[in-house]
Amino acid sequence: MDPIRNPYAPGAGQRPPELAGRDEQLRAFDVVLERIAAGRPERSLVLTGLRGVGKTVLLNALRSAAVRKRWGTGKLEARPDQGLRRPLSSALHQAVRELGHPREEDADHVLGVIRAFAQRDAGVGAKLKDQWNPGIDAPVVRGRADSGDIEIDLVELFTDVGGLAADVGKGVAVFIDEMQDLGPDDVSALCAACHEMSQTGLPVIVVGAGLPHLPAVLSASKSYSERLFRYQRIDRLSRDAADRALSAPAEDEDACFTEDALAAMYAATGGYPYFIQAYGKSVWDLAPRSPITCDDVSVAAPEAEAELAVGFFGSRFERATPGERDYLRAMADVAVSIAEADSEELDDIGSVPTADVASALGKKPQSLSPARDSLLKKGLIYSGERGKIAFTVPHFGRYLRERV
Questions:
Q1: 73 exposure class (CB count in 10 Å sphere: 0-12, 13-18, 19+)
Q2: Each residue of 186-218: pLDDT tens digit?
């Protein structure tokens, strides 16, 4: 097969594998956009799932859907060491520009409010060189979204942006990736602003994506958060969807897979879109001709696994300290014990008790709290329920046992 025209290479083609099987989410989001544009009440949206299930690709597809409706859109990626003001200001700056409001003075007023919101991050009386400017030429609007209280300021900011969008019969959607990494104050402010939008009916929504424990993060911030967001769990693809993810790009290049090859690919990837793309790329590079066979999959599997071991698993494992790596290995060992005792597949074991991990290491659970908390902050594990933890990366336990 021609490696230059590899349809599974990152960024290749118009139909990335991660979007296969996501038609339901795309259709539902179109309805959300229509309802909000019509002034009907609707909740913001939160996508949750493990790493590698295609949340970011789906988030981008939803943004594209909003752009096609001529909404104003902006996107940011949350980081544990960064506040919300600056990245959100950049995202809203772009959204306001996309709205194309006919009255320039009204748009400039809102841009001035965004600028005030951003610069408040530097503190009162900050020197000009320390004030951050998100590329906005409009003068700062004093006394609006610049109190220093992020909750008050964000409510005022969303209100002004929503009013501008309502003037032209459109909406604004803010897309936030890695939403679980927002700080507690920023999460609280975001919930308060979304609540205000739902009360006033202004056309501003937040579309977030994050790890499976994101709903718990939102709930811990505001008890009413479940009324603000529509939660959608993004999981591995079904067999049919995974087959389409492989077959459709191949057909665009006048190639195909045999049924045995598709079965072998699903067995190797587990239906996770990131793995489908990685295996698809390797198989395409190494298969001599079409149709791609089960033997081609067997030949390409070691190359795909080696690439995943370095770029997907290894890069995360290297971020852990020696003590944290011991904790991760113990999690994998406990998962194997549970799978053997219950006659289940290892990859079907979602979470393991923290007490069992401590027992496997021969230590008291309290002494392992620093390692566990650090792994949680690094996004390598998450806690979906009290007393249990799980890997954020699918097949990570298998990687630890086979390669580490």
A1: buried
A2: 999 999 999 999 999 999 999 999 999 999 999
